[in-house]
Amino acid sequence: MGSLDEDRPGEATPLPPGQRAQTQWPVLHYGPVPRFKPERWDLQVYGATVDGAKHSWDFGEFHRLPTAEVTAEMHCVTKFSLVASTWTGVLARTILELAPPAPEATHVLAWAEYGYSANLRIEDLAAPTTIFATGRGGAELTPEHGFPLRLVVPHLYAWKGPKWVRAIEYLTEERRGFWEERGYHKIGDPWQEQRYSYQED
Ligand SMILES: Nc1nc2c(c(=O)[nH]1)N[C@H]1C(S)=C(S)[C@@H](COP(=O)(O)O)O[C@H]1N2
Ligand SMILES: [Mo]
Fold first, then answer.
1. Domain for residue 35, yes or no?
2. What span, in angstroms and rounded, lies between the C-alpha atoms of 148 and 122?
3. What is the torsional sign of CA 165, 166, 172, 175?
4. Which of 66, 70, 61 is nearest to 94 (CA)?
5. Model pLDDT for residues 22-67, shown as the tens digit of each residue
6. Residue 3 has what pLDDT?
7. Residue 10 domain-assigned?
8. Looking at ligand 1, which residue's alpha carbon is closest to its atom 20?
9. Structural domain contains residue 2
10. Would the pTM count as exceeding 0.90?
């Protein structure tokens, strides 16, 4: 099994154990799709920042940040993997550089509209393919897929990437996010099939 890799036609991209490839993009989330209010929107970084201050970018400011592109699969814990996604947006690394965490920060909560959250290790946010995405496949995200902004963490299960992301909270102690509090794994590495919290050491 595997998917066709756009850059290497004919070569199969291996998928994590238990996943099957899917080319259609389903809409999957808990709760309603939030309505975008441009004048009230910002992306915030707070908690254990190095300077102790809260940082934020309004919609215009965010769209002036340097952009990048990441091509990756998206692995849902319900066992489908969306193949060959090219995400455009701002690398999470860029945000980490502009609003650095304090040395004692070890984890983050990524917060979305309506209180959805996911916990990550700082190194997951700093990974070279973690991206605050505004588009996929050359098109702007639709509201149901996370417009205006979603976090994509390709090396972890997809619940780790909140659609409608609004904030990063730096933590000096790990705290569990929405699904992590409901029985899902605190790390969520699909290559190790870290699906459920009972698998944690
Ligand atoms: N805010 C928010 N983001 C979320 C979710 C959610 O319930 N709320 N679900 C996650 C899960 S489990 C998956 S598989 C992907 C699905 O993204 P899609 O609807 O664009 O396919 O969004 C993730 N991001
Ligand atoms: Mo998912």
1. no
2. 23
3. negative
4. 66
5. 999 999 999 999 999 999 999 999 999 999 999 999 999 999 999 9
6. 45
7. no
8. 145
9. no
10. yes
Neighbour tally for 95: CB within 10 Å: 23
**For residue 136, what are the β-bridge partners?**
87, 139
| Residues in contact with ligand 1 (CB, 6 Å cut-off) | 25-30, 76, 112, 116, 145, 158-159, 161-164
Domain count, the chain: 1
Å from CA of 145 to ligand 1 middle: 8
Q: How far is the CA of 183 from the centre of ligand 1 (A)?
A: 16
Report the separation in Å between the CA atom of 161 and the middle of ligand 2, taken as the mean of its atom positions: 9
Full residue range of the structural domain in which residue 181 is found: 16-24+41-199
**How far is it, in rounded angstroms, from Cα 167 to Cα 99?**
12
Q: Which atom of ligand 1 is nearest to the CA of 113?
A: 1
* β-bridge partners, 21: 81
**The amino acid at 85:** S
The radius of gyration of the chain from alpha carbons, rounded to an integer in Å, stands at 16
Distance (Å, whole) CA 42 – CA 27: 24
Continuous H helices in the chain: 59-62, 92-98, 122-126
Q: Give the ligand with the smallest distance to the CA of 154.
A: 1
Q: Looking at ligand 1, which atom is closest to the CA of residue 31?
A: 7
Is 158 part of a structural domain of the chain? yes
